[in-house]
Design brief:
The protein has 500 residues and is mainly α. The protein has 3 domains: 129 residues, Rossmann fold, CATH 3.40.50.620; 91 residues, Alpha Horseshoe (Serine Threonine Protein Phosphatase 5, Tetratricopeptide repeat), CATH 1.25.40.80; 185 residues, Orthogonal Bundle (DNA Cyclobutane Dipyrimidine Photolyase, subunit A, domain 3). Helices cover 51% and strands 5% of the residues. Strands 3-2-1-4-5 form a 5-stranded parallel β-sheet, sandwiched between helices. Helix 7 crosses helix 12 and helix 17 crosses helix 18. It is globular.
Amino acid sequence: MQIFWLKRNLRLQDSVPFFLSMKASRSYGKVLPLYVHEPGLIAQPDVSRQHQAFISETLVELSTEFEALGGQLLQAIGETVSVLERIHRCSPITRICTHCETTQNAQYERDIAVRAWCREKEIELMEVEQNGVARGKQSLEAFAEYFSRAIGNSLKDPTGADLSQRFARLPFTSCAISDIPLAAGADKPGRQRGGRQAGQDILNNFFNVRNLSRYPSRISSPNTAWASCSRVSTYLAYGIVSDREVFQAVDRVVSIGHGTLTAPEFARLQNRARFFLDRLNWRRQYLQVFESHPHVETRCMLPQFDGVREAEFDEGLFLAWSTGRTGIPYIDAAMRCLRDCGWINMRLRATLVSFATMNCWLPTHRVAQLLATEFLDYEPGIHHVIHQIVSGTSDFQALMIYDPMKQARDHDPQGQFIRRWVPELADLSGAEVHELARTAGCHSRIAEDLGHGPYPAPVVDCKLTAKSAKSRIHALKNGFPDPGRDSGGANTSSPQLGLI
């Protein structure tokens, strides 16, 4: 019997492991689809209830898809090696087919344990690469070639097939949903729903000439990004849709534009398509960096930063930032929106991380771990690398300090986003929400009815703390003594690096 092992690759469409296992059912035996609810992973500090609920919704749809093909999905509780051992005793396993994944260290250690178990039992383990990430001695393919190959492939979709003769019977009954250990935290009311149908809706509805044409100009403001970003990141993170499906969706839009637009209009569309594909290229690059440097999940990429922020950790600042009570309206609106919805746009994410690690000087890994639980589209290989870049602890040359006041004025000039998520400021009109002298102590009737107290004064001076952070990071990167250690973080000298 073969195992088709589903981890963070929760799809049947464009699933090479599923296709290969089905194709080889006569040689290796019938196929048992398997998902394991692992208590050890569920208890990890970067896993939250919203992640688990999203996966649960996805598994419900997957189960229905398998049944339509003539099979059943086995869901089991336990550590993966123990579950595999139990299956193997019931019906000997000949081969396990799955995706090779670039994910957090806890899951990577799980994968190592499964490889060792397979060697011991002399079971073939087929791990199929994805996302164009190279592992070990593999050479990394240039993005242009990877993209061209992806759009030229015919992607397998088993929908509508009768594969009942190729599926194995369940060796034992699937677990009861009520028995699955619950992850920490609470579900988010405004998050995206799990399942292939939701991912397919994005592929069908977002990828058209109109949306791709206006994408670059509307993704920076939280007032327009909600409807103008593709929102496909969550479905990519859980492998509900593949990157190749997204590439082909972009390519279809460009092909449609070629046949319907004037030459100047088509040239503009091509530029905007490249802009979108640049983000997918960044995604692949971040995954590759994490594949090659997995230690960035727990340590700084540049070792001279290890322990620096930790030595000055301020619990009060961390609490204010993580609960949306910093007294900086744009930051608090971002955090409160995230806590409710599990998503904010890319620029707002960078601003939130920059404020935490630069203005509040909070440890990069404490910030990254907290936000891992808040982002529904948390993908470890991307998440941890970006946090290192924004916090200045990577070898990325440019220093990315986002002035939250400038970001607010540029991207929420009339304060619509702020007033939506910070009701204490509901009585302030227009740009008044950007005047910190007026926001401190504000307490609208709406906020009082919702149980909010008066709005706090700013916990830090954004300009002074940014200047100090730039000075300290510049010194540490260039091998000089850390000026903040001698001055309690109050040093205000800085290199000529402007705020974004």
